């Protein structure tokens, strides 16, 4: 029997036709803003003008200009996707729905990670078939990264990648009902840089009314750059290109040249008299804000939004194990991380040693990296949100160790994603260089984690008690 074609969906910008499979309907590469070409690369996103006829929505969109991101022996292509796939209309989104039938299903909008320099919704990990199977409409979003997305430039709006996500959420508000989603029941969720963006949305006045719930996976409520730090990156980029630091001058530079100078921006000293480098040199880009999101929640919709937030117990391993840096780590390396990421390095090292008396220097270095990059900012965001939201904050910890790279990768950054998306049995995630390692995924973990995420999206209750800073309850997955 021939497969039935999905219905044509009428959006406010034009009609689209996608694909149908046993999980529902998939509509790809729907533009939510005008193509960011030329000077528009450094402007706020503008609504797409629409198209005549029926637009083919069966092929994935191009991706934002981005560099390759090798991670030693670890295969991270399921996370980063294909890299840069050139094309004009990459400010686009995919919609995976049980049926485009005008129903009122919960909607989840996913914001990918990638250090503010890479990533896209083409990554295999973001296949939304399990969400559609379980009655949720999933939207995955591309946004500007790197210099076009996050370099702070005179004459250009700040945080253009964040503005893109806001534009996509407005598209969801105005258009998702045609795909069987409820615009009044939207959960925005993100991981890593995407989670930090979600945290910033909680503190952004212009995000009010665009979502009802938020999930912050391994992000940081304290991961933004100060204007002074951003200015250093901008000055270095302008010097590398031999131009003035202005939107007009940068708009004249091709994307290839903007990517070409990224190595010259790595390793910049961003510590100032008032702020540490929240990314510890791992990326020259972040959000640029006058106050950290965790300290500005009262300015945005956070008080009216339920939040699910957490991190992984060995986040720092991703930046040491694949590169062969864990075992050779020394006491000097431990002190260097403490000096870069903490106000009192000596006391910090003493505390982490006391908490892990049998740990070798690599484990201590990983623990300090994870806490500085993700853990401390996650805790601060959870505590700040719980104070203003009336017990609508839910905290989790991910502890399932990956056996990749000779069993050493552990419960590191990104390893929760296959369980959230219920893809942990996919063969391309296994093997010694696969993200989850050669061992099979533990039975029931993906069901539990994916189930908690979808339950939270439906009614705001993931299945455990709300967070109380005085008596914190944290749901541990795996381990």
TrEMBL record:
Keyword Hydrolase: yes
Region span, Disordered: 45-65
UniProt keyword terms in alphabetical order: Hydrolase
Enzyme Commission designation: 3.1.1.-
InterPro entries per the UniProt record, alphabetical: AB_hydrolase_fold, CarbesteraseB, Carboxylesterase_B_AS, Lipase_GDXG_HIS_AS, Type-B_Carboxylest/Lipase
Domain Carboxylesterase type B, first and last residues per copy: 6-463
Family the UniProt entry places it in: Belongs to the type-B carboxylesterase/lipase family.
Designated name of the protein: Carboxylic ester hydrolase
Species annotation: Catenulispora pinistramenti
Species classification: Bacteria, Bacillati, Actinomycetota, Actinomycetes, Catenulisporales
């Amino acid at each position: 029997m021939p497969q039935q074609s999905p219905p044509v969906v009428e959006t406010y910008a034009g009609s689209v036709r996608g694909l149908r499979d046993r999980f529902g309907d998939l509509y790809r590469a729907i533009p939510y803003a005008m193509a960011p070409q030329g000077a528009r690369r450094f402007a706020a996103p503008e609504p797409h003008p629409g198209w005549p006829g029926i637009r083919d929505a069966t092929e994935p969109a191009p991706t934002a200009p981005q560099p390759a991101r090798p991670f030693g022996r670890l295969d991270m292509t399921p996370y980063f996707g294909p890299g840069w796939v050139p094309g004009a209309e990459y400010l686009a989104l995919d919609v995976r729905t049980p049926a485009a039938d005008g129903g009122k299903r919960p909607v989840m909008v996913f914001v990918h990670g990638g250090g503010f320099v890479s990533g896209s919704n083409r990554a295999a990990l973001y296949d939304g078939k399990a969400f559609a199977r379980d009655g949720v409409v999933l939207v995955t979003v591309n946004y500007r990264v790197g210099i076009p997305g996050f370099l702070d430039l005179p004459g250009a709006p700040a945080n253009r990648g964040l503005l893109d996500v806001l534009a996509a959420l407005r598209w969801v508000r105005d258009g998702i009902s045609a795909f069987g989603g409820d615009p009044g029941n939207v959960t925005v969720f993100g991981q890593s840089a995407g989670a930090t963006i979600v945290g910033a949305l909680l503190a952004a006045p212009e995000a009010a009314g665009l979502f009802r719930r938020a999930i912050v996976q391994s992000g940081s409520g304290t991961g933004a750059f100060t204007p002074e730090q951003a200015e250093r990156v901008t000055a270095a980029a302008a010097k590398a290109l031999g131009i003035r630091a202005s939107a007009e001058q940068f708009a004249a530079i091709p994307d290839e040249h903007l990517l070409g100078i990224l190595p010259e921006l790595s390793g910049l000293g961003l510590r100032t008299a008032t702020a540490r480098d929240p990314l510890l040199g791992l990326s020259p880009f972040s959000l640029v804000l006058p106050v950290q999101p965790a300290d500005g929640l009262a300015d945005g919709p956070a008080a009216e939004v339920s939040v699910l937030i957490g991190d992984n117990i060995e986040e720092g391993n991703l930046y040491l194990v694949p590169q062969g840096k864990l075992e050779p780590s020394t006491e000097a390396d431990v002190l260097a991380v403490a000096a870069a990421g903490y106000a009192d390095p000596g006391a910090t090292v003493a505390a982490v040693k006391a908490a892990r008396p049998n740990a070798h220097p690599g484990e201590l270095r990983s623990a300090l990296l994870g806490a500085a990059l993700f853990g401390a900012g996650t805790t601060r965001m959870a505590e700040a949100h719980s104070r203003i939201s009336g017990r609508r904050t839910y905290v989790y910890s991910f502890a399932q160790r990956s056996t990749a790279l000779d069993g050493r990768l552990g419960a590191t950054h990104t390893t929760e994603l296959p369980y959230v998306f219920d893809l942990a049995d996919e063969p391309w995630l296994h093997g010694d260089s696969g993200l989850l390692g050669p061992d099979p995924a533990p039975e029931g973990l993906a069901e539990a984690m994916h189930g908690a995420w979808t339950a939270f999206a439906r009614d705001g209750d993931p299945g455990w008690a709300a967070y109380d800073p005085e008596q914190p309850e944290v749901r541990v997955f795996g381990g």
